[in-house]
Amino acid sequence: MATKDELFKKVISHAKEFGFVFPNSEIYDGLSATYDYAQNGVELKNNIKKYWWMSMVQLHENIVGLDAAIFMHPTTWKASGHVDAFNDPMIDNKDSKKRYRADVLIEDHIAKIEAKINKDITKAKKRFGDAFNEEEFRNTNPNVLRRTKEIESINQRMGDALNNDKLDDLQQLIIDLGIVCPVSGSKNWTEVKQFNLMFGTELGAVAGDASTVYLRPETAQGIFVNYLNVQKTGRMKLPFGIAQIGKAFRNEIIARQFIFRMREFEQMEMQFFIQPGTQMKWFEYWKETRIKWHKALGLGEENYRFHDHVKLAHYADAATDIEFNFPFGFKELEGIHSRTDFDLKQHEEYSGKKLRYFDPETKESYVPYVLETSIGVDRMFLAVLSASYKDDQLEDGSSRVVLAIPAPLAPIKAAILPLVRKDGLPEKAREILKALQFDHNCMYEEKDTIGKRYRRQDAIGTPYCITVDHQSLEDNTVTIRERDSMKQERVSIEELPKIITNKVNMKNLFI
Ligand code: ATP
Questions:
Q1: pTM score of the predicted model
Q2: pLDDT of amino acid 164
Q3: CA torsion 326→332→336→339, rounded to 10°?
Q4: How far is the CA of 503 from the centre of ligand 1 (A)?
Q5: CATH of domain 401-510
Q6: Which fold has domain 45-75+212-386?
């Protein structure tokens, strides 16, 4: 079995070799933390967006879409708090000259303690067998208790330092925990400093006249400033939501881990406007709805977990992350935040415009509360790609690399393959392609042996291969080969559109 590290390397090189993700401007040696989506990648990405849009907009009577501009009036970012508070606390190691996010160093330290607890639990499970009671073990085992307490105390100190902007305390915590630089191994740290993550640029042609505009660091603010426009023109009644998919930009200091953390990325955000006081009910509703959306993909239920925030962002009164088990461990995939009325109130104050909702039932007018779900398209892409990647050892001793991408998300739904390049088989295959291509992204391929072609389709995650052989000319049938089981079945060509549509329908993920 490959280690997780090896798996990650394999996924990255597979993504390049098979046309999913290329390093950006590669002929100039690339631009760090920037990637381009290639021919198969763009299809997978579009399908992920479609799956999200369908669940949010198409299937919710009370959620509508929006596509706001990337540039916004500069005051937007003062009102939202990003100019003053969209910072990461950074610390440098003086020996390696590497820069780290102070909170991430501490969280990695906590993860190591958690790993020790899990090791003890696994050992005890083996020892006690069926009689093992994990909860009791966690509550009584002295080692586990001590470590749990240690984690609590670290979380408390970190939360206190972050919430109160006590950067010295954060540095002291790193020193007290004896955290070493993963590169140099030394504890020779600088002090902790704040670093703003927004990209600024100049608007206007005349120097001096220009004013700083920012590339948006999140799509949410485009929704907030438009909320009343949408509410009025769409005659929306609370609770209602606005969904948006679009690019966001952050000058991440440590941008690494492939497409997990980039400086230019894409978000799928939905702001749900609600009556004040109902936020906890909706927080629970969206937690449940979103985790269901993830788990429906069948990438493994054990790969998801919730992680509640220790430090609440300046706008939130409750927040949790859906974490995914990436090849480098459990990390944030999606955030669910109860943002209160912070943003709308701030925009009221800075714009001088009322952003109230008039409730026709209570005849009151108030600023709604907001529940947000926010997920990165690129992280979702990486989750699907890494969980789908499989090195299969087959019974006949051979091996294959297969991407077991959920069929509705697969870049190509069906490959149409004439067994040989003669005898009228290519013509028949192209007829089938024509019958399917309006409904599905399909591919025609005639080069190489059929075995090699199957392997190539496995490697890009095509769920169905349709093979046209000599029998096809006689009785109008073809074989359909299923990617994961490699089983083949013979079906009539007439039935094909219906069969393929049933198998790859996105609807299947919802029922
Ligand atoms: P992190 O703690 O990992 O930096 P965050 O808490 O700052 O993430 P949010 O502001 O909650 O992230 O953004 C919502 C979502 O946008 C995240 O859950 C993630 O999927 C995505 N995202 C945020 N930053 C990046 C990035 N630099 N590259 C790719 N996706 C990102």
A1: 0.85
A2: 84
A3: -170
A4: 33
A5: 3.40.50.800
A6: BirA Bifunctional Protein; domain 2 (3.30.930)
